[in-house]
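Go through this:
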Amino acid sequence: MDCTDAMIRSTTPTVLASLVLALFPVSTAFAQDPASAPATPARARPTEPTASFRFEGGSLQEFVAILRSNWAPGQTPNVIVPLSAVDVELPAIELRDVTVGTALQAIASCAYPRWQVRYERVATEAGQTIHTLMVMPGPTQSQTVVQGSGRDPRDEVMTVVFSLRELIEAPPGVDASLAIPAATVLTAIEAGLELDGGLAEAKLGFHESSSLLFVRGNRDRLRLVEQTIDALKSDLRDRRNRTAHPTVTGPSGTPTTRSR
């Protein structure tokens, strides 16, 4: 379906998203002596800043600009969007009492199936939060490109942002050796692209302080980068899990798992 602005306004109902921020602690009742179970005061969870605003429809880039303008000074969210965001047309949407993450997740749902918008939140060492969006053509967009122009949608060039933090930084309490140097991750990606014949066509940019990798290329190159990162993450999770729960041999010779 061709999502022109006029069609969006006339055929797409306004999407209303609201988020209830008051989180009440949930407790489970166990059979016990009331006298031996002193009441524990509920611990309040920190809440994130919220905003309410209406977007009249337009591009994803315009939505992000409106989103940024609706937060108080000092709370303006850091949202990174690819250049292709200007091509993503969105319907009108009204948001009430939402966090940045909820707003971006809601708009990602509105973009589908014409566009696939993936949201990711990254926390930096300095305590800052970076919100990133990845944009790729959705199922109906791919069909439109093929039928309308005869071009292969895989040839479309776009920029995608990946977080490498899980790979290059060990979580608290985990040995620092159970992390992969950023240079190793980048050379693994470059090796895959070179073998696929696309290293010269793809552009990589690594932002060290935020652990974000920016990749520009066509869909095949972006998919290869994503598969490489996912494979590295899967292998690293297995290594960390084996270290946290080493397998030992019991008296009977049966392997058992011991938690550290």
